[in-house]
Structure formats: structure tokens, C-alpha cells
Design goal:
The structure holds 2 protein chains of 2 kinds.
Chain A lengths: L6 E10 L2 E11 L4 E6 L5 H8 L7 E6 L2 E2 L5 H9 L1 E4 L11 H12 L4 H14 L16 H12 L6 E5 L7 H18 L2 E5 L3 H7 L2 E6 L2 E6 L1 H6 L3 H8 L1 H7 L15
Parallel strand pairs in A: 3-8, 3-9, 6-7, 7-8
Antiparallel strand pairs in A: 1-2, 1-4, 4-5, 9-10
Helix pairs in contact in A: 3-4, 3-5, 4-5, 6-7
Chain B lengths: L5 E6 L4 E9 L4 H14 L6 E11 L1 H13 L7 E4 L6 H9 L14 H38 L6 H11 L4 H23 L7 H40 L2 H7 L4 H38 L5 H11 L2 H27 L5 H32 L3
Parallel strand pairs in B: 2-3, 3-4
Antiparallel strand pairs in B: 1-2
Helix pairs in contact in B: 1-2, 2-3, 4-9, 4-11, 5-9, 6-7, 6-9, 7-9, 7-10, 7-11, 7-12, 9-11, 11-12
The chains are: A alpha/beta, B alpha/beta.
Chain lengths: ~270, ~375
């Protein structure tokens, strides 16, 4: 049996004024995979993400997330869907008037009717899982470093145990060690919690280490999808440049076969 | 959602056997929380406990944590808790949860104890001292910057000053005229209404003239300025501070006081006397309008009475105060703007503090000037 894709985007067109940023985007994300999305700066990756989660209006095409079309869903159905996904924004988007712990508790307070003790315990456990030290749990977002902010934001996006998480450049602005840790963390959480991950990234290293499939966005269209191997063989000029460029060759060169296709869980 | 979860206890020989069933997920977290607490309380101490989990259909971090809570509750009792039949696919999730939440929680500092109150009082006192210091240092930095500009006039930022003059001066003219006009009308109307009882209509003009020129004109305009321009200064400088623009300026060898603060405060110091003059005239005009329509006093008589009642001294008293008030508003607004820390909340707090403090200081300054002018007989 082929499972329904978790995200199913068909012929999506998003335009601002007369300028079409996305012009016929089609792709799907399967259950339980880490799907990486690449594209040049300004190619509309973030626009795509924001359109999928319903922050931007689309001009035509269809988007199905977790088996529901968000635009035709009732408010109640929408809320139910929103409960089942988590979003990590590029800058973290932590609420600056709440502590790290309160930020993680926020979705719980809003969506669940739980005793305070359980919420305290769960928020602390989530922050432990993303590797934030106890001493930092009661800090305000302005007191946190970039890496810690991303961790707290990840913990908040996972607060309700979602089935699907959207990550917008999770490793941008982190040093290579922190970025590597973050990749490993996303991978571990994805495997233990059975998450589906939709990730926008510029980080070739993350693409190589944690993504099961990759989609490439150029000229407002998805020009290629597939494993890193497929991407290396693709002959679209932009994809070629991206995956065979100066920085990529050292990572993906045949002399370095360690990457050769990470098998998705259950495959 | 799955079938609701349950935890059934079966007392066995010398041990308690628990069977967990159903979907242990966030959707059922509330009932599970109660279930676990109840089970922990009911179980006899001293007996080993085993939990059979192979009938759990779905498990997430909430369910895993609640089972872990049961385990931890009996950790130090003989026998402890034995977990059996955990489905293979949830093993790593359970390991994660078992590692989590080990360290004792760091308590958030309480604010309701006596020592907490004392701490607050102490911090407020130190904070007040620091604010005075910040005000003084901003004033000092401003004087230094002004000195540098006088020594080297080419470094003066004329374009920036003119831009701010346009914002806080020219664009503020309509609202200042309207408000002072209305205030003038109101004072005159109240004057006629009450003075008429004593047949002292003529003295309304004295009151309006002296009050407007000496006090009300400058005070109203300064307060409006603190609310309109002071708050804008604080918010601008604060968000520049948040986005590290001020640090960037410093690393390029430019003093933010020279570049950002001096033009702003100078614009305020130039604009406030002009607006005070315009405002006072509008208020006197408003008084005249009311005198004609409400008090039945012809414009000729109004102007004649005004000429007798008001001397140049009254006008000077009002105008001398204006630049000082502008200075206080500007310095407070800029010092407050630089005090903004990283969060949006802090920006809001500092902007509020800027307006409240500058209005307060404007009124205090007005009082000091009243004493001073009384002493020099003006």
C-alpha cells in the first residue's frame, strides 16, 4: 500500500503583483522522511514554506498537508492540523517576553488542558532533549546565544509531539560544530519520534548527512527531486552548479563515498 | 486519536502487575496524568511492580514521560518498577525520555517573599541611581559632541539636523496650533464664566495673557513634544540598538552621539521655542475668539486690554524656558533609547519610561524656573 504523502503540492503559483515567485511548483513529501529543499537566495524557498503553512496566499494550484486542503478546511479543521505540525522559523521567533521554558509551554497552554506540573515536566524534558542546559531554562530569549535560541525554537516546535515539522534554515548562523550537533539532533528526534521533516537549507553538509530526499527550486519551479545521487546526475544547469560547484565537490566527490545514500528508515 | 489509554492493576503474588493499553499520547495526557498519580498513591510500598506495555498502540513523549514518572516515583523503593514488552519501535523514544529531566529543576526566583521585596527595593534604588548617571553622562556626551562640532564645524551633520527639524518642528505645527488654540479657548471661556459673577470680565484678558505666555503655552507644547517626538526618538534609537546598528556605527569610528543624538536634540532645541511662540499666539487668538463670541468683547478691546496686561517680561519668561525643556526631553529620550535591551518588551518599557520621565522632568523644571524668576523679579 502506498501511503498518502504528508505534503502534496500541485502546480502551485504564488505571485506578488505581477511577479510570479513560484510558478507551477509540484512535489510531495512522504511520511517519515527528511526532505531538504534547496534554492538560490531569493528563489522563493521561504515563500514556499510560508505558503504551505498558510501565511501567504496562493494564486492557483493545490496544497494538501496531512491529508487536508488547508484553504477549504473549516477553522476547526485547520486548528486540528496546525496542532499536528511544528514550525521552526529562521530567526527562532521566540516570544521575547517569555522565558525559554515558557516559550516551550506556550503551545501546551494554548492547545491542551493539562495540569501545570505536567506542563513544567514536559517542557523541561523537551528542552533536555534538544540539549539545553538546566541553568538556561529560565533565561529570556535575549540572553540566549544563536545556537541556544535555535534549540529552544526546535523544542517549541516539538512541544505538542507533531507529526510534521517545518524547519527554515535550521543551521544557518551556527558554527560548524553546533550545526553538526543540530543535524544529529534533528536526525535523532526524527527517528525516535517518527517525524516527517520538511527542511529549507543552504547547508550542503546537512543535505548530505540527514536528508533522505532533496528538492531543488530554480526559476520558480522544482527542477529536480530525489536523493543526493540523483541530484548529482541531474543536468539542469543550476542543479549542476549547486551540487558540483566548488564547495560541493569536496563533499560529494566520488573519492568520498561515505555519503552514498542514507537509507530512509523502514526502506 | 486511537483508543483511550488504560492502566489496569492486578495484585499478584508478592508483586503488582500493571497492564498498560491503548494510545498513550498527548491527546489523552490529562486523563493519563490523573491515572498515573492515582496508581502511584494506591500501590502498596515495598512490593515490586511490573508494567506490561505490549498492548500500547501508540506512544509519544507525553505517554513515555508519564510511565517514566511512575518509574521514578518508586525508584527508591525495594523492587522498583520493571517494564516489559515495550514495542521495539518505541525503544529509542523511551531511552531519550529516561535521560531527560534528571537534574532537579532550577526554581524560578520568587518575587513574593520578604527578601524578594527587599531585593526589588534594592534593585529599584540602584536602578534610580543608574538612571541619574545615564542622564548625566548623556548630557556630558552631548556637551563634548557640541564642543567637537564647534572646534570642527565641517563635522556637523546639517542634513540630518534639518531632517529632524522637519519631523519634530514643521510637521508638528498643525497639531500644536490646534491644541494650544483649544486650550486658549477653554481658559477664556472658564474665565468669563466665573469672573462674570464678580463683574470682573475685563480681567479675563489679563489671566489669559499672563497664563498663556508664562506657563501654559510652553508647558502644553513641551508635553506634546515629549509624547510626540521624545517617544519616537526612544523607539528609533532603541530599535537601532536592538539591531546592532549603534555598535556598527561605533566600529566604523563614528560616535553615535555625534551622528544620531546631537542632530536630534539640536532639532528639538530649535523647534520647541518656535512651536512655543506659535502655540502661545494660537492660544491668545483662541482666547480672543471666545472673548468675542462668548464674552461679548470686541477684538479691539481684547487687543487693547492684552497690551496693557502683558509685558515683554511675561513673553520672555515663557520663551527662556522652552529650550531647556527641549534639552531635558531630548536627553531623556535618547538616554532611554540607548538603555533598550534585546527584547520587544524592553523597547516598550523604555518608550513608556521616556515619555513619563520627560513629562515629569518638564514639570519639575517649570517649578524650578518659577522659583528662579520670582527671585530675579521677572
Amino acid at each position: 500500500m502506498i501511503e498518502k504523502p504528508v505534503i502534496d503540492v500541485r502546480d502551485l503559483v504564488v505571485a506578488f503583483g505581477s511577479r510570479a515567485v513560484l510558478n507551477g511548483v509540484t512535489f510531495d513529501v512522504r511520511k517519515g522522511e527528511v526532505f531538504g529543499f534547496v534554492g538560490g537566495s531569493g528563489s522563493g524557498k521561504s515563500v514556499l514554506l510560508r505558503t504551505i503553512i498558510g501565511l501567504l496566499p496562493r494564486r492557483s494550484g493545490s496544497i494538501e498537508v496531512l491529508g487536508e486542503r488547508l484553504d477549504t478546511a473549516t477553522d476547526e479543521a485547520r486548528r486540528q492540523i496546525e496542532r499536528r505540525w511544528g514550525v521552526l522559523f529562521q530567526q527562532g521567533a521566540l516570544f521575547s517576553s517569555l522565558t525559554a521554558l515558557q516559550n516551550v509551554q506556550f503551545p501546551m497552554v494554548e492547545y491542551l488542558d493539562l495540569p501545570q506540573r505536567l506542563m513544567d515536566e514536559m517542557a523541561a524534558a523537551k528542552l533536555d532533549m534538544v540539549g539545553l542546559r538546566r541553568a538556561d531554562h529560565n533565561k529570556m530569549p535575549s540572553e540566549l546565544s544563536g545556537g541556544m535560541t535555535k534549540r529552544v525554537a526546535l523544542a517549541r516546535s516539538l512541544a505538542l509531539d507533531p507529526e510534521l515539522v517545518f524547519l527554515d534554515e535550521p543551521t544557518s548562523g551556527l558554527d560548524p560544530i553546533a550545526a553538526g550537533d543540530f543535524d544529529a539532533l534533528i536526525r535523532t528526534l526524527q527517528q525516535t519520534l517518527g517525524l516527517t521533516v520538511f527542511m529549507i537549507t543552504h547547508d550542503l553538509e546537512s543535505l548530505k548527512t540527514i536528508c533522505d530526499r532533496v528538492g531543488a527550486l530554480a526559476d520558480g519551479k522544482v527542477v529536480a527531486t530525489g536523493s543526493i545521487q540523483t541530484m548529482l546526475q541531474n543536468d539542469h544547469p543550476w542543479v549542476q552548479e549547486y551540487f558540483r560547484g566548488r564547495r560541493a565537490t569536496s563533499l560529494f566527490s566520488p573519492a568520498n563515498p561515505a555519503h552514498a545514500g542514507i537509507t530512509p528508515p523502514g526502506a | 486519536m486511537g483508543s483511550p489509554p488504560s492502566l489496569v492493576a492486578r495484585p499478584g503474588a508478592g508483586q503488582v502487575e500493571l497492564t498498560a493499553e491503548g494510545s498513550w499520547t498527548v491527546a489523552h495526557a490529562r486523563s493519563l496524568d490523573g491515572l498515573i498519580d492515582e496508581t502511584v498513591q494506591r500501590m502498596p510500598p515495598g512490593q515490586p511492580v511490573s508494567v506490561d506495555m505490549h498492548r500500547i498502540t501508540t506512544l509519544d513523549t507525553y505517554g513515555a514521560w508519564l510511565i517514566e514518572r511512575l518509574v521514578r516515583a518508586r525508584e527508591n523503593l525495594p523492587g522498583g518498577v520493571r517494564l516489559e514488552g515495550l514495542p521495539e519501535r518505541y525503544k529509542s523514544l523511551f531511552d531519550q525520555i529516561q535521560r531527560a529531566d534528571r537534574a532537579p529543576p532550577v526554581p524560578a526566583p520568587s518575587r513574593f517573599s520578604i527578601s524578594g521585596k527587599l531585593e526589588q527595593l534594592g534593585r529599584a534604588t540602584v536602578g534610580f541611581g543608574n538612571e541619574l548617571l545615564a542622564f548625566a553622562s548623556m548630557l556630558g556626551a552631548l556637551v563634548l559632541s557640541l564642543g567637537r562640532v564647534i572646534a570642527n564645524p565641517r563635522s556637523f551633520r546639517l542634513t540630518s539636523t534639518v531632517h529632524h527639524l522637519d519631523r519634530v518642528g514643521w510637521k508638528a505645527v498643525p497639531i500644536m496650533l490646534l491644541i494650544t488654540f483649544l486650550i486658549g479657548c477653554i481658559i477664556a471661556q472658564q474665565g468669563f464664566f466665573h469672573f462674570r459673577k464678580f463683574g470682573a470680565d475685563a480681567y479675563v484678558v489679563d489671566m489669559v495673557g499672563i497664563l498663556v505666555l508664562r506657563e501654559i503655552g510652553v508647558l502644553i507644547v513641551a508635553i506634546m513634544m515629549a509624547g510626540r517626538s521624545g517617544s519616537a526618538y526612544t523607539a528609533e534609537l532603541g530599535s537601532m540598538k536592538m539591531r546592532e546598528e549603534i555598535d556598527a556605527l561605533r566600529t566604523m569610528g563614528r560616535d553615535p552621539v555625534d551622528v544620531l543624538i546631537l542632530p536630534r536634540i539640536l532639532a528639538l532645541v530649535i523647534a520647541l521655542p518656535i512651536l512655543t511662540f506659535l502655540g502661545s499666539m494660537a492660544a491668545l487668538y483662541g482666547g480672543g475668539v471666545v472673548a468675542y463670541f462668548y464674552g461679548g468683547m470686541s477684538p479691539d478691546i481684547y487687543i487693547e486690554r492684552l497690551r496693557e496686561a502683558v509685558s515683554l517680561t511675561h513673553f520672555e519668561v515663557g520663551m527662556i524656558k522652552a529650550p531647556f525643556m527641549a534639552l531635558v526631553i531630548g536627553v531623556v529620550a535618547c538616554a532611554q533609547g540607548l538603555a533598550v535591551k534585546g527584547s520587544a518588551e524592553s523597547l516598550g518599557l523604555e518608550t513608556t519610561a521616556s515619555v513619563v520621565k520627560s513629562i515629569f522632568l518638564v514639570i519639575v523644571l517649570d517649578g524650578l524656573f518659577a522659583v528662579f524668576f520670582a527671585a530675579v523679579d521677572m
